[in-house]
């Protein structure tokens, strides 16, 4: 099967996710700077989640450049990833509305962890379809970032119950790891 529909559908869903998140930012009732202060937690949670969705969009885009064909399993794995990402607006609004309270921060981390696992499954199925000599296989190599990220999410999830700020630092750390553009796939494609 051709990958075009998978890419178009994924791009559309990710665009809708970002749109839903921004709609949670309500216009303040006042006309001065002080009226923005209560929105600060919501804005911070939006920025972090926007970055996460951007990271997934960017990495998904690069990964799809390595794909020649998709299988039914790859389509379902992609939907699995989109399912977890579609919950990001919900947990984003929840942590922003509740000033980064422990349980919402725990659930934010759970959703991020599940999205990371879903991405790993999608990547695994693409590798399985295209083989160990594929562009993607060469590009990801040992995938240190992919191995460190779930560990940091789990640390954040555990710590969220007694220190939500530290959990937030863990979630931000993962975003920073992935925010630096990953050139592995581009470099492999350019070299071939």
UniProtKB/TrEMBL annotation:
It catalyses: K(+)(in) = K(+)(out). The chain crosses the membrane at residues 12-31, 43-59, 71-95, 107-127, 148-180. GO terms for cellular component: membrane. One of its GO terms (molecular function) is potassium channel activity. Keywords: Ion channel, Ion transport, Membrane, Potassium, Potassium channel, Potassium transport, Transmembrane, Transmembrane helix, Transport. InterPro entries: TMEM175-like. Pfam families: TMEM175. It comes from the Bacteria. It is a multi-pass membrane protein. It is found in: Membrane. Belongs to the TMEM175 family. This is Integral membrane protein. It comes from Flavobacterium limnosediminis JC2902. The lineage of its organism: Bacteria, Pseudomonadati, Bacteroidota, Flavobacteriia, Flavobacteriales.
């Amino acid at each position: 099967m051709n990958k075009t529909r998978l890419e178009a559908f994924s791009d559309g869903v990710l665009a809708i996710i970002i749109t839903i998140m921004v709609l949670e930012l309500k216009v303040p009732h006042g006309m001065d700077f002080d009226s923005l202060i209560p929105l600060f937690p919501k804005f911070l949670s939006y920025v972090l989640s926007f970055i996460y969705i951007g990271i997934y969009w960017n990495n998904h885009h690069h990964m799809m450049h390595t794909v020649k064909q998709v299988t039914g399993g790859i389509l379902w794995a992609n939907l699995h990833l989109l399912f977890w990402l579609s919950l990001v607006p919900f947990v984003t609004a929840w942590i922003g509305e509740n000033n980064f309270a422990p349980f919402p921060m725990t659930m934010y981390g759970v959703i991020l962890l599940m999205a990371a696992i879903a991405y790993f499954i999608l990547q695994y199925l693409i590798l399985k379809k295209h083989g160990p000599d594929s562009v993607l296989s060469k590009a990801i190599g040992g995938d240190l970032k992919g191995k460190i990220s779930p560990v940091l999410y789990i640390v954040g999830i555990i710590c969220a119950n007694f220190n939500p700020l530290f959990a937030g630092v863990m979630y931000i750390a993962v975003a920073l790891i992935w925010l630096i553009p990953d050139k592995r796939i581009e470099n492999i494609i350019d070299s071939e």
